[in-house]
Amino acid sequence: MELQEAIVKRRTIRDFSEQKINPDIINKALLAGLKAPSYNHLKQWYFILVSDREKRIALIHTEKMIESVTEELEESLKDFDNLSKQMYLDAIPKQKRMMLSAPELLVVVYKPKTQIADSTRIYDLNCLASVWCCIENILLSLAEDSVFGVTFIPQNTKAVKEVLNIPPELEVAAIIPFGYKANNATLIPQKEVRLEDRLFMNRWTKENPI
After folding, report:
1. What total of structural domains would you count in the chain?
2. What angle do CA 41, 45, 165 make, to 5 degrees?
3. 49: which strand partners?
4. CATH code at position 13
5. pLDDT tens digits, residue range 157-205?
6. Would you say residue 110 lies in a domain?
7. What is the pTM of this model?
8. Cα separation, 30 vs 120, whole angstroms
9. Domain named Nitroreductase: which ranges (predicted)?
10. Beta strand pairing call for 104-110 and 171-179
11. By C-alpha distance, which of 102, 96, 88 is closest to 61?
12. HSE value, Cβ hemisphere, 13 Å, CA-based, for 176
């Protein structure tokens, strides 16, 4: 598959089949992640594959997860555009289920230059930016083999680190449930964006960027 095909094919999936994934596919994807550009050239990224159900349950308990659409959720989304609202109404109630049911659960860890809580400049976030290059490489490689996932950003990373025994000097970038998509998997339409509306030459030319 060509790169452009993988880019177009890659989608966010939260509904997974029970089909097992060949370990070679996973290893290939992680190696692709390690080929990403790194802020310090040291590629200080680490991967934890969590198969133990008790560990997954413990991870779920680090977050507040609802399992159905509530009035409170709908009210919080009332000012969102229709596409964003559709995505959140589908996504939020599936968080717990996808963490438990995904054939694979990947936790991506990195060593930050500056702890997130202490960051005061964009420069301080270089390590965070580069680990997301790593994550995108992983997702594109998985998509090449028709394996898809979703990036879940934990709010309570301290608790996640305690569950998985991650050293305090490291940080959690994302938790990624992934697998083959279920036959009834929800596919939220992607927002169509015209390049002409986003590309500027030499200087900004719009009065309002929103």
Report:
1. 1
2. 145
3. 106
4. 3.40.109.10
5. 999 999 999 999 999 999 999 999 999 998 888 888 999 989 999 999 8
6. yes
7. 0.93
8. 31
9. 7-180
10. antiparallel
11. 96
12. 27
